[in-house]
Write a structure and sequence with these properties.
Helix content is 55%, strand content 14%. With 456 residues, the protein is an alpha+beta fold. The chain has helices at 2-25, 39-56, 58-61, 64-74, 78-128, 133-136, 138-154, 157-180, 184-193, 195-212, 221-224, 227-239, 243-258, 415-420, 427-455; strands spanning 271-279, 284-293, 311-318, 329-330, 341-349, 361-368, 376-384, 391-392, 399-404.
């Protein structure tokens, strides 16, 4: 019986291999011309699936359990050996069949992906040339609809779902490449159309998600929202935001990172205490800089004095692009101290809407004043100007915050990296990056100076 089962396995394997070679011979794996799924191809795929189902029933058809019981009578443990042999042979067959079926499925998705990619590029080009989005999508959606309808009608349902899942993952990869492509043609389109270039890709993404969620394909959420989908969804939503939204997201991330600093420990660059309130009748943000503590000594010690700093604090509202008429303000300089007391109040004209916009922030930069050279950067802090972070202007101080002074991270992702891709075509992004890079360099110079001093 084992010999019969093995012989059937070998015959089926040769049959499947013959089908694969036949497909190669008729040019199925060639890359020329547009690829379309045909009824004949579906019949071939179905035949493999049918053979697989028939093979699964062979142990029952051959009454393997009865033979195993008889073997047990001849040899102790014979039933277990017989069942193990059957299981091994069936596992080998399943692996062989799955490999051949998946080779065909992978070729379907590979060939379709090439044409899908071509249609996506054409869509991006057409909408850039002024064609309406829906009209520009006709080629891609017709191609998908025609081929998937053929597979839906002709393939076994189980196989159809496998093909759709493969194709979905392939489309996610093609869309990611389209989104992140940095060819000369794409750079030129981004320069001309700005963020609209990415919003057109987001529209394409939304249409495709809706298409694969349709009744015909009916992909379940767990099949649709794969890891590659989640990654692409996040990237597309970030890239399609306007530059000021990305800046607000960046400052919100700075504040979130700042919250991870343990205020119980000594902050390496010190901390600054402020109070904030909003005067609604006057539309004024009222900020009082109270004091700073544990600042690093930026000036070298001498025979006559220990190492100290001459700190002052610069206040600004960020992103500046949302507050174009607000000029930065600064405290007085406190000489020879690491724990300066300021108690100085500043007022900024701010609309009530800004208090409801996440990411709009008060930024504080602490510097050490120097008479004969550039002032040294000590650290920065940010705090949102949302109503939840503000006190009532009728109170003496408003809501008090103790903020750690930090140095910006040298590695960036998310919003900052997207803004970097817009430097060529967005003045807002270019100005923002110029300001931040200046702070990065100042922080690097300060860190190098303190490191060199500590080694002495």
């Amino acid at each position: 019986t084992a010999l019969v089962l093995n012989t059937i396995h070998n015959v089926v394997g040769k049959y499947c291999e013959h089908i694969v070679k036949k497909l190669e011979k008729v040019g199925y794996y060639d890359d020329e011309g547009q690829f379309d799924v045909t009824e004949e191809l579906c019949v071939i795929q179905n035949s493999l699936d049918h053979v697989g189902e028939c093979m699964e029933g062979l142990p029952v058809d051959l009454e393997w359990d009865t033979l195993a019981d008889q073997y047990e009578k001849v040899e102790a443990g014979g039933c277990k050996k017989a069942n193990l042999l059957c299981e091994q042979m069936m596992d080998s067959f399943r692996d062989d069949m799955n490999n051949k079926r998946h080779r065909i499925v992978e070729q379907i998705t590979k060939r379709m992906s090439r044409d899908i990619s071509h249609n996506m590029v054409q869509y991006v080009q057409d909408v850039s040339d002024g064609v309406g989005r829906d009209e520009a999508l006709n080629g891609l959606m017709t191609y998908l609809d025609t081929n998937l309808q053929t597979m839906f009608t002709e393939l076994f349902n189980k196989t159809f779902k496998v093909v759709v899942a493969y194709l979905w993952e392939s489309i996610m990869a093609v869309m990611k490449f389209t989104l992140l492509c940095d060819s000369e043609m794409v750079r030129e389109q981004r320069k001309i159309h700005g963020v609209l270039y990415y919003q057109n890709i987001k529209y394409l993404f939304d249409v495709l998600v809706g298409f694969f969620e349709s009744d015909t394909l009916s992909m379940e959420a767990r099949q649709l929202k794969t890891e590659s989908y989640k990654e692409l969804y996040s990237k597309i939503n970030t890239y399609s935001q306007d530059s000021t939204m990305l800046m607000r997201e960046y400052y919100q991330s700075l504040y979130t990172s700042q919250l991870t600093v343990d205020m119980e420990d000594r902050c390496p660059f010190g901390a600054v205490g402020i109070s904030m309130a909003y005067n609604e009748p006057k539309s004024e943000l009222v900020v009082t800089v109270l004091h700073a503590k544990n600042l690093p000594a930026m000036d070298s010690s001498s025979v006559f004095s220990s190492a100290k700093s001459d700190p002052y604090i610069v206040l600004s509202l960020e992103p500046q692009e949302l507050f174009p008429n607000i000029v930065e303000q600064k405290t007085t300089t406190q000489m020879d101290t690491l724990t300066p007391l300021y108690d100085e109040t500043f007022r900024f004209k701010v609309s009530p809407e800004s208090q409801q916009t996440p990411g709009c922030s008060l930024q504080l930069h602490c510097y050490d004043w120097d008479r004969f050279k550039c002032n040294d950067f000590i650290g920065e802090a940010v705090v949102p100007i949302l109503l939840s972070e503000l006190g009532c202007a009728k109170s003496v101080r408003g809501k008090t915050h103790m903020l750690p002074l930090c140095h910006p991270q040298t590695k960036h992702d998310g919003a900052f990296n997207v803004l970097c891709t817009r430097e060529e075509f967005s003045n807002d992004a270019a100005n923002f990056l110029k300001r931040r890079r200046k702070v990065f360099q100042q922080a690097a110079d300060t860190y190098a100076m303190l490191l060199k001093r500590n080694k002495k």
